[in-house]
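Translate structure to sequence.
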């Protein structure tokens, strides 16, 4: 049984309507918004109002349903409608290039378009909606299993470091790495979590600290540059993070800063675990060097919490993710089990 948590998923599909929690406003306010157009859905993903690889996949799947409903009013022929649907799908697919769960979901949708089994626009929309509902409910189940398996790696009174946000907000279920923390907490393991703030967009301080605090898990927030000191001084037992894309050899792309934590963990002899559904594995890529890394707006680095924090024109790099080589990873947990090198997922 998965733990009952009071944090709602970042994405909600209810009575044929799509809602999301605006994650850019947490912890200041908790706003649930409805998606009524494709433009709103696209902007929500681009601006990280909806974020976290599994949540993006579920959200984009339902956004496609809504976009197709919008198109249905145009009285297109079935073929023209299918073409239009693929165009919308490509648009959603291009929003976040690193998170592979999105491409998995859009490939499933494309298969429906190309199945040749639909004979009307209504039937197509119906099938796309059913596929989106499957993607959502599968992700809930995946999270519950990941929580259970990840929990097996967490000892009583474990002191855990984590990065970014991998909780309910980032998935359709209880989360991935954070799902394991919820499960350990339910099992009364008395864990302590050290959450890295996760510059530049602060998913750790704004979202992870908020989720864990609400769940009653003992949580300490640190800035990213404190990680080495805290690993040593606080005797961290394990590092556990999520993933945006895992190559066949286990190299793992995750939020920028993850690679640094893995190097530090190796130095201090601390186990480093990745927890992610198999939908985060990209079986087309032999190694992590081939993972496309999203480069985001430089102003996210030049500014801090809405205020200018650097000379306004200073050149900036802003890669949203980095790739941790598999040799720095102790094990990767997917719903299929706890994998160790050499990896076969
Ligand atoms: O840019 P974000 O906030 O979407 O990045 C999220 C992460 O890096 C998460 O660790 C990853 O998507 C896993 S979420 C279960």
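Result:
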């Amino acid at each position: 049984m998965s733990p009952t948590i009071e944090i709602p998923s970042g994405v909600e599909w209810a009575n044929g309507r799509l809602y999301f929690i605006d994650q850019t406003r947490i912890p200041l306010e908790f706003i649930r918004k409805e998606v009524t157009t494709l433009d709103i859905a696209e902007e929500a993903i681009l601006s990280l109002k909806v974020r976290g690889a599994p949540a993006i996949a579920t959200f984009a799947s339902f956004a496609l349903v809504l976009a197709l409903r919008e198109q249905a009013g145009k009285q297109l022929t079935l073929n023209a409608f299918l073409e239009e649907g693929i165009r919308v799908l490509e648009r959603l697919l291009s929003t976040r290039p690193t998170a592979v769960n999105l491409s998995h979901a859009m490939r499933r949708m494309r298969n429906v378009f190309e199945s040749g089994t639909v004979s009307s626009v209504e039937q197509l929309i119906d099938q796309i909606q059913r596929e989106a509902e499957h993607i959502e409910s599968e992700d809930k189940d995946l999270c519950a299993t990941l929580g259970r398996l990840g929990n097996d790696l967490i000892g009583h009174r474990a002191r855990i470091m984590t990065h970014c946000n991998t909780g309910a907000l980032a998935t359709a279920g209880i989360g991935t790495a954070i799902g394991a923390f919820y499960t350990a907490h339910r099992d009364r393991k008395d864990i302590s979590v050290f959450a890295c703030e996760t510059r530049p967009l602060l998913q750790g301080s704004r979202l992870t600290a908020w989720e864990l605090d609400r769940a009653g898990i003992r949580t300490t927030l640190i800035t990213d540059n404190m990680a080495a000191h805290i690993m040593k001084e606080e005797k961290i037992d394990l590092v556990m993070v999520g993933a945006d894309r895992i190559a066949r050899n286990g190299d793992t792309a995750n939020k920028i800063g993850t690679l640094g934590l893995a190097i530090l963990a190796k130095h201090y002899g601390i186990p480093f675990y990745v927890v992610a559904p198999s939908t985060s594995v990209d079986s087309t890529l032999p190694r992590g060097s081939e993972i496309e890394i999203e480069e985001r707006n430089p102003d996210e680095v030049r500014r801090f919490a809405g205020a200018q924090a650097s000379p306004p024109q200073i050149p900036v790099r802003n890669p949203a993710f980095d790739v941790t080589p598999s040799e720095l990873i102790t094990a990767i947990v997917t719903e299929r089990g706890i994998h160790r090198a050499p990896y076969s997922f």
